[in-house]
Every structure is written in structure tokens, then in C-alpha cells.
Design brief:
It is built from 10 helices and 4 strands. The relative contact order is 0.07. The protein has a domain at 90-237: VSR Endonuclease (Endonuclease, Chain A). By secondary structure, it is of the alpha+beta class. It has a 4-stranded mixed beta sheet with strand order 1-2-3-4, with helices on both faces. Strand 2 (141-149) and strand 3 (154-158) form a beta hairpin.
């Protein structure tokens, strides 16, 4: 029986019921949090489509291509002038897009966390129990902040993903310029995005926090390995 037949709505989605069912079956509210569920999903896709993910199927690829052709006139929306203008030249659009993604993930409780982030979060919670993971203050800091400690009023960004570089970008650092040149020579779109994140977005966040006199800490790539150092930075406020 289809959703249309059962609920008279082909887009019917009962989030509470889905979370309850997933909790009963796997012990978590979202299947993305369960290794067992993820393995079952892969096995199902393999049996049904011959690949481990539906997004890898020809059917999905064709649907994406068709939708993009109808909406943008090209087989991939990222090739369109409209997308490029929005993504690379419109910070307001980027911010609204990020807010929408953040609100959706928060509502559905689907924040993903890396191992270094988990180490940092566990440490912060042990030292500051009111720590909030993936925090947003639209008035004071309108970006998704990795960690926020209310009792200290401290905003913490952890730049642990490769797109942030292994430390904050320094235009006077020869190694940073070398890395920038290497990324610029790459044809993949992910490197264009990495350049924007490392050389524009990260400095913009720091400038914004400094201008608004926030208690703001930037943790670099390997900082999670020295938790005492993180505590010292926090206690400085």
C-alpha cells in the first residue's frame, strides 16, 4: 500500500512515529545513528539496485538530471549561472541556505559528529555540563557554532575538516599560499568551496566575533589532542 492510498497524501511523514519505530528497532531515533540500520540499508540497496546507495543508481541520476534540466537548463544545477551567482557571489543567500539546513537538522536531530568533535564535546560536558553542541545565536553570532558554553558565554569553532586547512589561513604564510595554489589548480568543485571556506568564511566569522566582542575560540585541526590547552583557552575568559 502506498502513502497516497494509506494516508491520502503521497508526501505523508510522521516524524514522531518514525522516531518511535526506529528507537524500538535500533535503540536510536535516527537510522543514520545506527550501524546495523546503515548496513541493512546498504544490503537492501544492493539487492534491489546492485549498488550500496540509491543515489548511485541510474534511476536517481536520471531524476536529478531531469529536474536540473527543467529548472536550470543544464544537466547539473552546479553548472548553471544562477547557482554560481548564488553559491560563489551571494553571502546573504549562503547564510539563508545554511540557516535552513541548520533548522532542518536541529528539528530532525540529525547532526553528525566526527570523532575529534565527540572527544571535544565529551570533555566540554565533563567540565561545563551546560555545553551546547551546534548552537546558533541569530542576534550575536548568526552562524552555526560548533560548541557554546552558556556559563562562560564562550563560542567555540572547531576547524577540524580539511576544507578549513590545518590552521587559520595566513596570506603572508608561504606554505598557506602554496596550498592555496594547489587547491586553485584542482578542477573539482570541492576545492573551490574549500578555498571559500578557508580564505573567506573562516576569517569572516573571526572578524565578526571580534567586532562584536564575543568570547570566541577557534580550535585548529589537532587541538582536540590537547584538552588541557582547550580548557586554558576557555578559562582565559
Amino acid at each position: 500500500m502506498t502513502k497516497k492510498e494509506k494516508y491520502n497524501d503521497e508526501n505523508y511523514n510522521n516524524r514522531e512515529l518514525a522516531e518511535k519505530t526506529t528507537l524500538e528497532r535500533y535503540g536510536v531515533k535516527n537510522t543514520k545513528q545506527s550501524e546495523v540500520a546503515k548496513m541493512k540499508e546498504k544490503e537492501t540497496c544492493l539487492k534491489r539496485y546492485g549498488v550500496t546507495s540509491y543515489r548511485k543508481t541510474k534511476e536517481c541520476t536520471e531524476k536529478i538530471r531531469k529536474t536540473s534540466m527543467e529548472k536550470y537548463g543544464v544537466d547539473n544545477c552546479t553548472k548553471s549561472d544562477e547557482w554560481k551567482r548564488k553559491w560563489y557571489g551571494n553571502n546573504e543567500w549562503n547564510q539563508k541556505r545554511s540557516e535552513k539546513i541548520y533548522d532542518t537538522m536541529k528539528k530532525n536531530k540529525r547532526f553528525l559528529i566526527s570523532k575529534p568533535e565527540k572527544i571535544i564535546l565529551d570533555f566540554l560536558l565533563s567540565e561545563y555540563p551546560d555545553t551546547i553542541f551546534q548552537y546558533k545565536d541569530k542576534k550575536r553570532y548568526p552562524f552555526k557554532c560548533d560548541f557554546y558554553i552558556p556559563q562562560k558565554d564562550v563560542f567555540i569553532e572547531y576547524n577540524g575538516f580539511w576544507m578549513h586547512g590545518k590552521h587559520s589561513f595566513d596570506k603572508n604564510n608561504e606554505e598557506d599560499l602554496k596550498t592555496l595554489n594547489e587547491w586553485s589548480s584542482k578542477p573539482q568543485k570541492q576545492y573551490k568551496l574549500a578555498i571559500k571556506v578557508w580564505t573567506e568564511m573562516d576569517p569572516m566569522k573571526l572578524e565578526f566575533a571580534t567586532k562584536n566582542k564575543l568570547n570566541y575560540i577557534v580550535l585548529e585541526y589537532d587541538d582536540y589532542k590537547d584538552l588541557n590547552k582547550i580548557k586554558q583557552k576557555i578559562e582565559a575568559f
